[in-house]
Design goal:
The structure is a single chain. 37% of the residues lie in helices and 21% in strands. By secondary structure, it is α+β, with helices and mostly antiparallel strands. Strands 1, 2, 3, 7, 8, 9, 10 and 11 form an eight-stranded antiparallel β-sheet that branches. It has one domain: Beta-lactamase (3-Layer(aba) Sandwich), CATH 3.40.710. Helix 4 runs parallel beside helix 6 and helix 7 crosses helix 8. It is built from twelve helices and eleven strands.
Length: 310
């Protein structure tokens, strides 16, 4: 395995004082002025940021004329749990421009949220329930507003996707390293962990009305960005001015209103250390959140836990 890809240990799972498992990866913390507070791993190695760039995709949409109330704008940058309020919201976005569920071209899936998926049961997967359907509805709405073709909106050469690419590159102050497609079917662009942190800090402290609108919507409606009982929702609710967005294959971005920014990528793609890493990183900035305890059991007894190593 490439040692650069492994990064450094970010979290350890212990059992009776013995390290049983580790999670390695890449982490960067930026101070409010953009200087580096901490680095672990290879933060200059390209990664796919996955859904952590949805705020940038949304800002490109708003910059191209998309007009949504804050609740629905939060949904347009979400990886939602697939609850009824999320699915109804997606239909509301589509109906606002005369479209319907059949116009979505995201992948078919069952709800992302554990409770929502359990309730869904054996029903077939749908595009509406897919966690990126809010983003896709926003993309379609932007196309209608501009008179762009809605059948080819996922083509990398489509005007919408070009606008998104330009927005991401401008915020990250870089050219993307690799172009492919995300799990939902939308174009996806690689960048380094450092560049992703640069972009998130930039959109957080930006005074441009579009950026203020997008970030404000996410902070005001975190349950639309994620869902009930999700780590993202709980953390954004508990820390005023905090923005947070997770991405598939264990990518996480966090920013505070003054520009302090945390970005990490866990190499094995597992999310189970997210809570421990988040809690420890925010403590370094003097911010106390409810600790996301991940206990290790020996029968009915707690014999270890997940702990951050940052």
């Amino acid at each position: 395995m490439n040692l650069d890809f492994r990064g450094e240990v970010l979290a350890e799972l212990t059992r009776n004082g013995l390290v049983e498992s580790i999670h390695t990866g890449h982490l960067i913390m930026l101070n409010s002025d953009g200087s580096v507070h901490k680095i672990k791993g290879s933060v200059d190695m390209p990664i796919f940021p996955r859904s952590t760039v949805k705020c940038m995709q949304a800002s490109a949409m708003v910059g191209s004329g998309l007009k949504l109330e804050p609740r629905l704008l939060a949904l347009a940058q979400s990886s939602h749990s697939g609850s009824q309020i999320h699915q109804d919201g997606v239909l509301e976005i589509l109906a606002g421009v005369g479209l319907q569920e059949s116009d979505l071209q995201c992948a078919f899936d069952k709800p992302l949220g554990e409770a929502e998926r359990a309730t869904w049961g054996e029903k077939p997967a749908t595009r509406l329930a897919m966690n990126c359907s809010g983003k896709h509805a926003g993309m379609l709405s932007t196309c209608v507003v501009n008179g762009w073709d809605i059948k080819s909106y996922l083509n990398p050469e489509h005007p919408l996707q070009i606008a998104i690419l330009n927005e991401i590159q401008a915020l990250a102050n870089t050219k993307v390293a690799n172009k492919t497609f995300d799990g939902c079917g939308a174009p996806l662009f690689a960048m380094t962990t450092r560049e992703l942190a640069t972009a998130i800090r930039a959109i957080t402290i930006s005074e441009e009305p579009v950026h203020i609108e997008v970030m404000g919507a996410a902070r005001a409606f975190p349950e639309m960005v994620a869902g009930v009982n999700r780590l993202t929702t709980r953390t954004m609710r508990s820390v005023p001015g905090l923005f947070m967005k997770e991405g598939a294959e264990a990518v996480e971005v966090v920013s505070l209103s003054d520009g302090r920014t945390l970005v990490f990528k866990i190499s094995d793609g597992s999310w189970r250390a997210f809570g421990a890493i988040m809690h420890a990183a925010l403590l370094e900035w003097g911010i106390t959140t409810t600790e996301e305890v991940f206990n290790v059991y020996g029968g009915a007894n707690i014999v270890g836990r997940m702990q951050a190593v940052i």
